[in-house]
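re: ur msg from earlier - yeah i can do the glutamine complex, just paste it... oh wait u already did. ok heres what im feeding in:
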Amino acid sequence: MAVWEPIDTIAAKVQSGELKAVDLVEKSLGLIAGNESFKAIVATTADRARERAKAIDAKIAAGENAGRLAGVPFIAKDNFLVFGADTTAASNILKGFAAPYQSTVIEKLEAEDAICVAKANLDAFAHGSSTENSDFFTTKNPHDETRVPGGSSGGSAASVALNLAPFALGSDTGGSIRLPASFTGTVGYKPTYGLVSRSGVVAMGSSLDSIGPLASSVEDAALIVDVTAGKDELDSTTIDQDDQGYVVSASSLAGKKIGVIKEYMGDGMQPGVRGCVEAAIEQIKQAGAEVQELSLPSLPLALAVYYIICPAEVSSNLSRYDGQRYGFSYADAKNLDESYTKTREIGFGKEAKRRIMMGTYVLSSGYYDAYYKKAQTVRTKIINDFAKAFESVDFLVGPTAPMTAFKIGENANDPLQMYLTDIMTVAVNMAGVPAISIPCGTAEGLPVGLQLIAPQRADRELLSVARAAEELLT
Ligand code: GLN
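and the outut:
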């Protein structure tokens, strides 16, 4: 039997008294303790989780109704503000920072009686594709301990792959939910930009950041989107939920128009990945979808443009960490200036510093036009390419990444090589469209992810077609 039943089944059993929230929390904490060697978890929120579980069980025993996620344990990436443990974003500069309030997403999940049990490891500030940029430790891939789980939500993905909890939360600025989902054989959903509130999540690139779930099935992921989506007065970029919500059944693939992204099927893909992805597309075709190859000509520029726009936003967002307000502060400073510089010098890791420098450079007056402004122009082209593609197809499909999980250390000293892992995920963030990575087989024993992409606000349709594809491929 699976370690965890589907999330709605667990919640129904807690509501009926067949399962106790306290037991579910203990089960999850036990699994976390038993799998410490994978280093997926930064800290548990055990005390608070146990208290909340007791309160939920008591409420049910008293005959009251509990929420739709009654007693369901989950794990949050450590860039979500959560009570019960520090929020560090896996960065030394935030060590010791206790959240003064919780992320909107956490509040929404708690309102439905889900229980956060732990915080997951990530690349510090979500900068990276492997968790090797975490200032604390590297998470190991559950399928092969010598390999990375992907990043930056690598701890969240490994947690789901290890079944530490039924679902985990991640953030996706350039692929950080989808890439680790692909590397760990889990489902990762990046919603339309603005569908899920960013309030209370440590900001990376504010025009790119999306919040979403990692789960074992599309059904579970869809339920979490349903609970967390919608307008939030604490995030002015949020949009309304779809009237019908996101709990969907599998749609028929027959007659669905699906475009295979030409630029993602070219050279540079590992043969094993190509094999899985092509076989999956063939199955989708056999199921009656109208599949055609489609070109989005500006996609080859997406990675270069992302690594201008994203660091520009990063450099601005990280300016707030100056030792005066959050976490670590250099104690021996002789004046305020030294406090700022020493705190940042000691507190930020290499990658954060690299992005601050790149971002500051492309925004500086002499280079703004040559880099930042030009990048924004290309971003518009990318947005237009997606819009044009969606005039002729309902969905786009391709690999999530050109490779399977790489070895720990393999790309760690080569930032450019590391950035290349994002080549098939970043364009989606720049266009603000929703995308999902679902497992589509293995290459030499390592999971491969299939990426499905939809127009903005077509999250409901995307989840529904992803359920159909998932049924077909597993
Ligand atoms: N790997 C990408 C980067 O390092 C994406 C990160 C993310 O989505 N948070 O920028």
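cool cool. The mean pLDDT is 97. ping me if u need the other ligands too
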